[in-house]
Amino acid sequence: MDQEYDGYMEEEEEWDREGLLDPAWEKQQKKTFTAWCNSHLRKTGPQNQIENIEEDFRNGLKLMLLLEVISGEHLPKPDRGKMRFHKIANVNKALDFIASKGVKLVSIGAEEIVDGNVKMTLGMIWTIILRFAIQDITVEELTAKEGLLLWCQRKTAPYKNVNVQNFHLSWKDGLAFCALIHRHRPELLDYYKLSRENPLENLNTAFDIAEKHLDIPRMLDPEDMVNSAKPDERSVMAYVSSYYHAFSGAQQAETAANRICKVLKVNQENERLMEEYERLASDLLEWIRRTRPWLENRTTDNTLPGTQRRLEEFRDYRRSQKPPKLEDKAKLENSFNTLQTRLRLSNRPAYLPTEGKMVSDIANAWKGLETAEKGFEEWLLSELQRLERLDHLAQKFRHKCEIHEEWATGKEEMLQSGDFKRCRLNELKAMKKKHEAFESDLAAHQDRVEQIAAIAQELNTLDYHDVATVNARCQRICDQWDVLGQLTTKRREGLEEAERILERIDQLHLEFAKRAAPFNNWMDGAKEDLMDMFIVHTTEEVQGLIDAHEQFKATLGEADKEYSTIVSLVQEVTRLGQQFGITPPDNPYTTLHAQDITNKWGEVKQLVPHRDSTLQQEMMRQQNNERLRRQFAAKANVVGQWIENQLDAVASIGVTGRSSLEEQLKKLQQFDKAVIGYKPNMEELERYNQEVQEAMIFENRYTQYTMETLRVGWEQLLTAIARNMNEVENQILTRDSKGISEAQMNEFRMSFNHFDKNRTKRLEPKEFKACLISLGYKIRDDKQGEADFQRIMSIVDPNRTGYVTFEAFLDFMTRETADTDTAEQVMQSFKILAGDKPFITAQILRQELPPDQAEYCIQRMAPYSGRDAVPGALDYMSFSTALYGESDL
Amino acid sequence: MTQTAVQLQRHPGASWGFRLQGGRDFSSELSVKKVQPGSPADGHLRPGDQIVAIGHQPTSGLTHMQANGLIKSAGNVVQFTIIRGPSTDFSHIKPKGPVKFSPWKYNQQQQQQNHY
């Protein structure tokens, strides 16, 4: 205890031995100490000020009062009597009080004070100044004097022309006083206009300002300062200590105000983040709610263009609508993590989003969306394929119908005709043959009618959109077919009845008719084949059609011979007619004319090259499809591999090595940049994919990747990078705010990675336990140890997922043993601003805090209702606890 | 987690001696923040206790000040229904001094166990 005071006790003895005081210094000390005493005594009323230091303390009353004011404590009741022994008793009470503060009063006696001994009185006052005004200034365990000196040096350091080395000569030119004032209250004086040449002016300026604005009375005389060779050290120290007390009080209030500002800013920012989270979550959920039914709707209007339109809409959804929402989702999760970290670090209660807007709710809704989305595109494409085939089938149906209807035209009238009742015998015979020919023709057409009915049936099964027209047409054809059958039977019976009467055969015509009819039928078939519609998906299929066509072409030579034979029969008739000068009658056995055969034959021959070119075109189309497949596959194989490599690389960051968090973050940012730079490749692939889809290509054997798997991989990569960056940022935040060193952080990470054997970035309970033990935790292998471990698990894994993440682990390792009670800190800060009162006023708040934060407090603080309340008093205590969601009961 | 009923009693004019935390307006559970030693709450409530009901009134949906008002208007006897989690004090098993990663520690413990 005594040692602490050595600094000034030593000085005291030295001064005592000296025995006398320089008269100039004594004069200075009397002025200064008188002013110093008055600066405290005036607080008790103007009547208590002193005028003459060696006179006014003689009865001990004002001395006791002075001690009460500066110590804030009560002294024993003074003796009110006027006798000498009363005075001595009072002075002794004062001296006892000083001694009770641990100060040895060497050679100062009460009687000498009562006698008005100047030297003794000044010595006693100096002791009081040292003990009560200077001793508290302890900077880095220095003596009181050195502490005050160091404070002056630090505060004047930025001022080049000030160099405080002592408490006498360094202050003569007044600049040091001005610098102290300017450093703390720059608005009070224009320091840079001052000059060392005008010491008197400088001193007056400083003393005036100190008196007027800092409430420090003048204690030194500028003339004395300038004129004395060495100003009195104690006087200067007494005066300078008043500066210290004036400014350190202000500084304390400033620190308190800063702390409150910091806390309020955190609150305001957290509230903003919560609102932002709620808004983002509502928007995203609303979008998912609107989008989902659209993806779940698996119906179309059953037409090609309608279905194609839906595919376009889906492409737009995948390319422009979904990606920003995925970004929103990642942003949402990240801002939730950041918010929780912030809340935890600032010791606030955890944030619980509004019902239905939890992160898990968002994740579930998103999962629902992706479930709805899954297979939607595939379904659309297969629907397109089905509709296209249906369209083809319908076209085929119409084509066959046309051919049949053309054939059937006039057949009913012909069959109902009574011509054989009015003709000659030979004509009748011909009619009979003709009818036989017709019957075989009819049989030949049976196949086609069955085909038509079969196609119509298939169209019905496949739910063709215009099935009504198809059915009506098919019904008409079938009805007519039945009628034709009946009419044919009826006519044959009529002809057979007449046969017995009529007989004459024209061999030539007969021969013609026999040959022409099958040939004609063959030509009809050939024409039909040549105009046959086809749909193929590979070059091999086209090649099959080409081969079949080539085979058909090989039979043309034989057909040409048959044609020549048929035509030559007619030519023979004509030649005979010309030879014998008669006009040959129409061929009674057939309605076919040589011209019909010739025309049709011409048509068939024309259709052959046409078919050639159609098949050739199809071949080219298939080859182009092949090219598109290879183009997509080549690109997809590169991009797919790239994405997989990146995913592996991102996953391995932070798992191995001892790189710092900043290095990891930098690496991740590089990956992020690389991915953004790679985007054009994805876009290029999307274009290829669109070409592939537009060419109606449905499978690709050159690559295992589909656009869908690549999109998923791409989104996984983006999400993985964003999530890792967020994790690292939160670790940095945790590390910095908890003041963990990089080395300590490495210990945590090394141990965590050591036990994370399968690199999942999380530990199973068994691994986590081993990790804790390796870090020095004493978890015993008994019931108690198991109970301790279960308690730890309930903190690091509150949701019982069965895993411990690095973040939770880090949080556990760095949590403080005793909760720092920040509500208490805020309260303490307000108490300083309030000048130790239990309430605060709006006026003080506006004076000490920035406007918006002052208003934030004034709006929220309740009126203070304690017994000592003044009008407008506000309750800062309940406000401070309320900031943390707390209240005292 | 099991629910426990506790009853506090106080002399008229004394404070209960605990700090309430949370509520609907803070988006968190209503719980006990700290307990003043020697107060009526000491020995009955513990920091971290979740308050499920005040008297017969469930606290879900109450704002902080509504809960505060309910307790204040209870008079000198008040019942709480609480859920108590495990203690969060680990000072007895924590390593002393800075944490250092020593993988062999775990192996040593394993070996000792095998030895027994």
The number of strands of chain A is: 5
Q: How many helices of chain B in DSSP terms?
A: 2
User: Strand-residue fraction of chain B?
Assistant: 25-35%
Low-confidence runs of chain A = 1-19, 501-505
What does this structure look like?
- The complex is a heterodimer of chains A (889) and B (116).
- Chain A has 32 helices and 5 strands.
- With 889 residues, chain A is an all-alpha fold.
- In chain A, the strands form 2 sheets. A two-stranded antiparallel ribbon of chain A has the order 1-2.
- In chain A, helix 4 packs parallel to helix 5 (84-100), helix 19 packs parallel to helix 22 and helix 22 (594-652) packs antiparallel against helix 23 (661-694).
- The model of chain A is unreliable at 1-19 and 501-505 (pLDDT under 50).
- Chain B has one domain: Pdz3 Domain, CATH 2.30.42.
- Chain B is 19% helix and 30% strand.
- Chain B has helices spanning 64-72, 103-115; strands at residues 3-9, 18-23, 28-35, 50-54, 57-58, 77-83.
- Chain B has a 4-stranded antiparallel beta sheet with strand order 1-6-4-5, covered by helices on one side. A two-stranded antiparallel sheet of chain B has the order 2-3.
- In chain B, a hairpin with a 2-residue loop joins strand 4 (50-54) and strand 5 (57-58).
- The mean pLDDT of chain B is 82.
- Chains A and B meet through helix 25, helix 26, helix 27 and strand 5 of A and strand 2, strand 3, helix 1 and helix 2 of B.
Q: How are the secondary structure elements laid out?
A:
The complex is a heterodimer of chains A (889) and B (116).
Chain A: H1 6-18, H2 23-41, H3 53-56, H4 61-71, H5 84-100, H6 110-114, H7 118-134, H8 144-156, H9 175-184, H10 199-213, H11 222-227, H12 233-296, H13 304-345, H14 359-373, H15 376-408, H16 411-416, H17 425-461, H18 467-499, H19 507-530, H20 539-554, H21 556-580, H22 594-652, H23 661-694, H24 707-738, H25 742-755, E1 762-763, H26 765-774, H27 783-796, E2 804-805, H28 806-814, H29 822-833, H30 842-848, H31 851-860, E3 862-863, E4 874-875, H32 876-883, E5 886-888
Antiparallel strand pairs in A: 1-2, 3-4
Helix pairs in contact in A: 2-7, 2-12, 4-5, 7-12, 8-12, 9-10, 12-13, 12-14, 12-29, 13-15, 13-24, 15-17, 15-18, 17-18, 17-19, 19-21, 19-22, 20-22, 21-22, 22-23, 22-24, 23-24, 24-28, 25-26, 29-32, 30-31
Chain B: E1 3-9, E2 18-23, E3 28-35, E4 50-54, E5 57-58, H1 64-72, E6 77-83, H2 103-115
Antiparallel strand pairs in B: 1-6, 2-3, 4-5, 4-6
